[in-house]
Every structure is written in structure tokens, then in C-alpha cells.
Design a protein that fits this description.
By secondary structure, the protein is of the alpha+beta class. The chain is built from 12 helices and 11 strands. It folds into 2 domains: 240 residues, 3-Layer(aba) Sandwich (Beta-lactamase), CATH 3.40.710; 101 residues, no CATH class.
């Protein structure tokens, strides 16, 4: 009896050893089939898959682009959990404050067309701004100050329901909100992130160009770049691909109700956070900001201005015109923006020198994956691998 127990134990150990050996050989085989660049993406894919499964709330769609090509994109989880519709590479999400980057690019294009200059006071085109209660001794608020978050505004106005209501009335919400906004600092004094500031910026750009803001964005950004699944108002075809948002931040009611409500209108939040898009379309937008895809009235000088560090936003990063800019390490610059609205979060980052970028889109707010940290970590790894391969 004791002899049989020993034999069974020995057999169990052998099976365990053979199993471990098999797994080691399997992973070695998988590693051998991929380049270090591909292996980094494969590890990232496995981590995202596990995170989304653990969250059990919705979906993430992710993409990697190199040069002017998306080399990998994939959906994880459910775009519509209630109807068991899986996410894929074409799923549409709200992108939140990445919309600000597009608004800043549009502003620079209109400057190129000589409608105004970066340091023009916005009251030239938006006289309603005189309703502001400016701090004593303040200088005029300019396009530059709004685009760099140095206008001194608080993040949001005090108007009830400023961020609610039909999208067609967003301009009226801006005007009605102006007397209610408070100041964190004097204009030009320091960085102070403001959604409202970008709303005012978008309206001032529209007034200067004498064209509706959303029309300008389609004509000068979406259409030239072939961003066919990007818009402020969902088309019937886009609704089929649209993910269902699930709010799970403490500041919002938990569940899908508020995200669904905001599809009908976001109040003033059109220029600062109103865009719907996909991984593929955001990659195209980033490619234009790496000088790889052309935009009308946008050349090397405009690109340089966009990515100039205008204001220190925190200890590790600065803000350009609509983009956050930071040094991942000496010689490695990361440019991008994040976004979060009710039921959706997003992150877009790219490294201009190596022309590599990451897009992450999610239809819930909080989860196992910190989108900003995950995107930056993968980008840093891919840039490092690419540079090692080029030695």
C-alpha cells in the first residue's frame, strides 16, 4: 500500500514536471514566432482581455499605429452587454476631451486662413465675453490663453444644466454660462484646466470664421482625413456601431441612463467633449499630428505651434495647444490627450519621432485598466523596442 502511494506520488511529480516543461516550450515557441514588437502587443492584448473580463461591465477597443498604418486593433468585451453584442475594431465610442485636441487643430487652421491670430482678444468676435467678472488688473482673454488652459477659468460654469440640452443649442448654453463662470486665477497667470474655456474657444473660432463649428470640423478635419466614423451627431449607420455607455464614477448616477441621455445633447460641451469616433479614425487624426497625413491650412509651422510646450500642467507634463506633452525619458516625447464623459473613457498617445501611437476606448469609466498609464507604458515599450531594432 505504501509502495503504491510512493509510485502515485512519483507519477504525479513527473506529470507536473512534464506539464511545466510543456508550458515553457509552448511559450518559447510563441515567443519565437513573434518579433519583440509583436510580443509586446501580444502581452498587452492578454492583459486587456483579462482586465475587461474581470470588470464585467462593457468593452475596450484598442489599437496600435505605426507610421500611417494601424498595425493592430481589437475589441474586448461587450459593446452592448444587454444584447450581447461584442466590441470589435470598428466599435464607436465617445472620446470626451480628446475633442479638445481637434478643436485646437481647427483653431490653428483658421489662424492659417487669416481669420484671427493666436493672441487676438476673443472679445473681437465674441463681445458677450464682456459679461465676465474679470479679476482686477486682468489682461484680455485671447485664443492662446483659452487653448493652453491659462485663461484662468474654473473647470465648469455655475449654470444649472449647462452640460445638458439639445446639441443644437450649445452656443446658447455658452452665452448663458458666461456670467456664471468663476476664476481660479487671472488670465495668463497659471495653468487651470477648463472644459468651459474650450467651449468658449470653439464658439469664438466659429464666430471668427462665420461658419457653424461642427461644419468647420467636418470640412477641415474629419473629411480630409477620411474619418468616416467621427461626428458630433450619430448617423443611422453610426448608431449600429455605437457602444452602450455605462457610468460608474462616483460623481454620476451608476448605470446606462445618463450616458444614453447625453447622446441627445451635452449642453455647451460640443467643442470640449462632443466627438464620437473609433480607433481607426483617431489613429488618422494622430497621423496628421505626426506630419503623415495632410490637413488643409495646416503645415509644419502649425504642427510645431501645436506641440510647443506653452504651459506647465503638472510636475511631469506641459500643455501645448490642445495636447499634453511630456518626456517619458530623455529623447522620448509623448504627445496625447485623455477623455472621460458619462459612461465613456478614452486615451490617445503618440511619439512624434518614431511615429508610433496607441488608442484605447472604453464604454465605462472606471475599471481594472488605467487607460492613460496603460497606453503610455505600451507606447514607451514599443518605442524602446523599435529603437533597439534600428541599432
Amino acid at each position: 500500500m505504501q509502495h503504491n502511494s510512493v509510485l502515485l506520488a512519483q507519477n504525479s511529480v513527473r506529470r507536473s514536471l512534464w506539464g511545466s516543461l510543456f508550458l515553457l516550450c509552448f511559450f518559447a515557441f510563441v515567443q519565437a514566432q513573434h518579433s519583440p514588437f509583436e510580443s509586446a502587443i501580444a502581452r498587452f492584448e492578454a492583459k486587456l482581455s483579462a482586465d475587461v473580463a474581470n470588470d464585467s461591465l462593457g468593452a475596450i477597443t484598442a489599437g496600435v499605429f505605426v507610421g500611417n498604418k494601424v498595425v493592430w486593433k481589437k475589441g474586448f468585451g461587450w459593446a452592448d452587454p444587454a444584447n450581447r453584442i461584442p466590441a470589435d475594431g470598428e466599435t464607436i465610442y465617445r472620446i470626451g476631451s480628446i475633442s479638445k485636441s481637434m478643436t485646437a487643430v481647427l483653431m490653428v487652421q483658421m489662424i492659417n486662413k487669416k481669420y484671427f491670430s493666436l493672441d487676438d482678444p476673443i472679445e473681437r468676435f465674441l463681445p458677450e465675453i464682456k459679461l465676465l467678472q474679470l479679476p482686477p488688473g486682468s489682461k484680455p482673454i485671447t485664443f492662446r490663453l483659452l487653448a493652453t488652459h491659462t485663461g484662468g477659468f474654473a473647470q465648469e460654469p455655475d449654470l444649472p444644466d449647462a452640460a445638458a440640452g439639445p446639441i443644437e443649442t450649445w452656443e446658447q448654453k455658452i452665452i448663458a454660462s458666461i456670467p456664471t463662470i468663476t476664476f481660479i486665477a487671472k488670465p495668463g497667470e497659471k495653468y487651470s484646466y477648463s472644459n468651459f474655456g474650450y467651449g468658449v474657444l470653439g464658439l469664438a473660432v466659429s464666430r471668427a470664421a462665420k461658419r457653424p463649428f461642427m461644419d468647420l470640423m467636418h470640412e477641415f478635419v474629419f473629411t480630409p482625413l477620411g474619418m468616416k466614423n467621427s461626428a458630433f451627431i450619430l448617423t443611422p449607420a453610426m448608431k449600429v456601431q455605437m457602444s452602450v455607455g455605462y457610468a460608474n464614477e462616483q460623481a454620476s448616477p451608476i448605470g446606462p441612463v445618463k450616458p444614453a441621455y447625453e447622446h441627445a445633447g451635452r449642453g455647451y460641451k460640443v467643442p470640449p467633449g462632443g466627438v464620437y469616433s473609433t480607433v481607426e479614425d483617431l489613429a488618422k487624426f494622430a497621423m496628421s499630428q505626426m506630419g503623415l497625413l495632410p490637413l488643409p491650412s495646416f503645415g509644419p509651422n502649425e504642427l510645431a505651434e501645436i506641440q510647443t510646450r506653452h504651459a506647465r500642467s503638472n510636475q511631469n507634463a506641459s500643455y501645448g495647444l490642445g495636447f499634453s506633452i511630456s518626456d517619458a525619458e530623455p529623447g522620448m516625447v509623448i504627445v496625447g490627450h485623455g477623455g472621460s464623459v458619462a459612461g465613456y473613457s478614452a486615451n490617445l498617445v503618440f511619439e512624434p519621432a518614431e511615429k508610433i501611437g496607441i488608442v484605447l476606448l472604453r464604454n465605462y469609466n472606471r475599471g481594472s485598466t488605467n487607460l492613460g498609464q496603460a497606453a503610455r507604458a505600451l507606447l514607451k515599450e514599443l518605442v524602446t523596442v523599435r529603437r533597439q531594432e534600428q541599432r
